[in-house]
Queue: 2 jobs
Job 1
Amino acid sequence: MNKYLLKFPIFLFIIVLLVFFYLLIIERNPSEIPSALLNKKIKNFESESLLKGEKFFSSNYIGKEIILVNFFASWCKPCRDEHIFIKKFADKNLKVIGINYKDNPEKAIKWLKKLGNPYSDIAIDNKGKIAINWGVYGIPETFIIDSKGVVKYRHVGPVTKKIYRKMNLLLKEIK
Amino acid sequence: MTSSLGNFSLWLSLLFSISQFFFSRKKNQLNFIAISVNGLLITSLLSFLLLMYAHVISDFSLVNVFQNSHTTKPLIYKISGVWGNHEGSMLLWILVLTMFNYFIYKLYNKENSIFIFKTLETQSFITIGFILFTILTSNPFKKMLSIEENGLGFNPILQDPALAIHPPLLYLGYVGFSAAFSMSVATLSLSKNETIFWYNYMKPFVMAAWTFLSIGIALGSLWAYYELGWGGWWFWDPVENASFMPWLLGTALLHSLIVVEKKKSLQAWVLLLAILAFLLSVVGTFLVRSGILTSVHTFALDPSRGMYILIFTAILGIYSLVLFGSKSKKYFDNNYFSFFSKEGAILINNIFMVIVCATVFLGTIYPLLVESITSNKISVGEPYYNSTVIPIIMPAILIMGIGPILSWGKENKLEIIKKILPTTFVTLLMTILIFSFYELYSVIGVFGIFLAFWIISNNLFILYKKKINHQIGMIVAHLGVGLLILGITGSSIWQIEKITKMKINNEIKINNYNILFNQIKEIKGPNYLALEGNFLVYNNNKNLIATLKPQNRFYPITGNYTSEVSIDTNFLRDLYIVLGKGNKDIGWTVRAYYNPLVIWIWIGSFVIFLGGIISINRNLKNLPK
């Protein structure tokens, strides 16, 4: 029996182990769905502004500078968990636009008063139409859009510490 | 109270497993080993019962009970809820592990002491690994910081009798392979002049593992069939594959063990299979519990758990495979087999099983492989498996039909042809008969039905001839495989699916049946509210033959919606109805299936299980005294 043939199982086993190991340590979300919008220009849209009592024009923000777009709702528990990171982005002078998804406006305003408001402006999306156009899978969801209006990053689910760091690196790169 | 007692007994188990490890490395410490083995069994049983007690009395001071239970849950699901979650299922895993550990210890006698001690050493190493894993990353006895009136409830789709016993049976299978693994390691570690009938000891464990794994997988599949409401019973889900792969290797292992026993050939091959079967079981555990992929089975995501199991798998795998690479030479032989002999048929079958296993393995990890290299997401699904697994498994089944008829050593070819002539005739006849009944042809279908009757008729023929030298358990199990193939083929090629919107008094036609949706009403269950549809099924002669009542349930505690399928079963076909979303004005989405011969899948699986049980019994009697 060939000597090398006997070593073959261990060789194969180690390759499989390495793949598993690599997948465990990298930041990945197995339920992540790649966005079809990635590296594409986002279409402009109109809606009502939650806090300003006037119309919301996305063209006021998109394509002007680097912005963060965050889909959230007061009924969504993970949104509350990630709120601290969204605030951190705003503290860094990054413009953060909120999209209030299928929510009661009064409750949303109350929620923001309690937790703090990191958003420069908030579009109301009570029918979930904006979310559909953006291919939102489930909230919270966060997008980074560069100064040309191109989607650079999309994250499904709450922003965690690791994701926050990853997004900061990406933001530096875009700048 | 329960928390501290539980923790105490868990730590005691750890202590006993460590002491078993040390004393089995020393010579002549039988008394200490006995204390360790028994202590381990008692303490792990105690931890398991304590957690069960906490679930039964709804002790919400434990995080585990709070997260997975609720006072309104029926008692049987309070009990099965113990292993319906990650932490509790680890306790069950440990309990089964220590039970097998105990059985191995019971095999001890003066002649086999070196072999049994070495086996117990490896077994205790595995036990230490799993107990530490439970204590460090998944402690079921963790205390709640706050006081809660009631729990969060239990996922309603898991509240099901088949699913209540599915995990224990699967674990008996997976963990049973740990005994084969330990024995393989022990055999490889024996020094040159020591010999032992290791295969006689390994066989009942492999037989038991395989038997329970088979019925465990079948029950999971049965559950998926009537609970998920997708009309099918197997979805090539990564976690289904994780149980299917050890099963395939277990099948190969089981059969080649017979060759080792009779001809003393294939020893190295069997030792490798025993190692791989358990390693694949642990890799399966890793896939399910690390959150590396998503499926209906994945438990709460926790990377630290994944890392722990991965490191543990690495230690087990590298140690055993290096041992195999360096020590297996003495188990090689240069025996050549004749193709037309029992051992020849078994060897070829073995190769097919391993190839199928490799194919499934590739399909399961290929998306992960691609993602780690290119960070692209791809998915591998049914078309891949159907087009790779089926063609490979078909010749294996063809050989399986004649395997039991062949004799050991050389066989006269003319004799074989004489033997299979009547069964070939019966098989062809039955195939034609079946196809004239279902009237729909496909190449795969013809092969499938042919193979099913090929297996069934050959085994019935052996039974009829009453050949005592044939193992009755084997014949029964093979018969079960034939019935299983009949069910698989029938439901795969003749399934009819209809999805429509239906209002009250609408009718649909499926195959030869007219189904009338005649009313819908609200009902209240013990812990759910439901909308129940009433569907009247008429046959071609306009006779009412069945009333189907699918439900749409809402569980207020967990906030889940589930759909309860309604099925009318007979030996020829299932009628299967799922009530979807909708309302009075626009109607309800209704999915109806005509699934031929499905019941034979479950009957076949049960017959396989029965055959396995008979064989275990026989093998235990054959143990060297």
Note: The helical segments of chain A are 3-25, 77-91, 105-115, 129-133, 161-174.
Job 2
Amino acid sequence: MLAPRVAALIQAAALHLPAPLEEIRLREDRPLHLVYSGGDSFVATCDGELTPDPSRAATATHDDLLRTFQLMAQGSVYAWEDEIRGGFLTLQGGHRVGLAGRAVTDGGRIKTLKHVSSLNIRIAREILGCATGLLPRLVGSGRLVSTLLISPPQAGKTTMLRDLVRQVSRGAPMAGLRGCKVGLVDERSEVAGCCAGVPQRDVGPRTDVLDACPKAEGLMLLIRSLSPAVVAVDEIGRPADAEAVMEALHAGVAVLATAHGHSLEDVARRPALAELIRAGAFGRAVILGRSRGPGTVEQVMDLPCYPGGGRVAG
Amino acid sequence: MAALLGKVVGGLLILGATSYAGWQVGGNYARRPAELRDLQTALAVLQTEVEYGATPLPEALRSAAAAAGPAVAPLFARTAERLAAGGGITPGDAMRSILDAGLEGAVLRPEDLEVMRALAGVLGASGREDQVRHLALARERLVALAARAAEERSRYEKLARYVGVLSGTALVLILL
């Protein structure tokens, strides 16, 4: 997927990495930048050694960026216009690439990006079983309680959601949970990493994925047509999302959702989410952090829960 | 008697050869406008695939090849093959390498292929609107080239054939 020159450099550098690679960052005319858990570093010009000194590092050229971008778009940039407008591409294997460059706007909205000058390749990691410890605390009377995962970026929110979905779908006897039908709305193709609609990640045997679909609309569609017992959705925050979540709860469907933030108070500052919490949409709030590496469960809070759907109040 | 027979046979051979050469040259004048039209058709298909289907290039190129005539179809089919093979190659690289290798069986001139070379540089590298603009521009240039090729054809196709026959006749007369 990378331009051959960059690929060779990074392949050499990968041997020197002290921890698993998290991000590969290419910026035009600036040093090749690698981020791994617990630190970051540049790639030196010779034989891929790592260096903290940007002046000794190999830079990514215009041609590298252009080539890499084209290769990632499978030679067809025009076919991914919606994704590029949203600032990201999903690669085979579920890795995601963030894009920056010059935005072409139309009436104040981004129409497309041209002269892409920054690429951030986020290596998707599937950590099977990372939710095993958490799941029992989200179950009440043999059913999943609606849960909001709160976490700052890069703290494993999506990875955790994916594993929760997988385990709920498969069933977790240890947690006293039988496998149930899960509907997943994956607007940014991040959770299931779909390629041509087929999940590239293990999201469980009873999971239906609605890929690249706007969250609010997707939730409604799932509830109407696929009769899920649980719906999962990443990064809610807009009023329309909140409305759809309430709709799901009224239909007796448990909701697994995530939101950006460091604490419940952070999240409650956003009007749509505050409304949801006040209405008792979620029975649990889970705060994730990086204090012991990404995906650390910092806190599980019981919230006063909406009594509908037969779930047990927190 | 034998000498006369030899002269007649030799004369016929010369006449046949020059006529054939003239016929070929004339035929090339006739085929070029047709091949330019085929290129236009292929680009029109490519444009539709890009504009309405947002079809990824390898597949779009294959449909373009299917719509083009046998002389220019390999340009698109082979570019698609090379792209599908992967290995860090961009669509521009792929098409340029095919153009560099030359299209055997086609009578297109360097200036015709130059249009495709210019297009190769931007192929697949930008948003839909931009691609459509570039494809339309390339087609316009091909239309202009085709008009000139048609004009040349009307002027030179018959001429080349006559020159073939007549030069053969003249040669035979001189040698007699």
Note: Chain B touches chain A through 20 residues (CB under 8 Å).
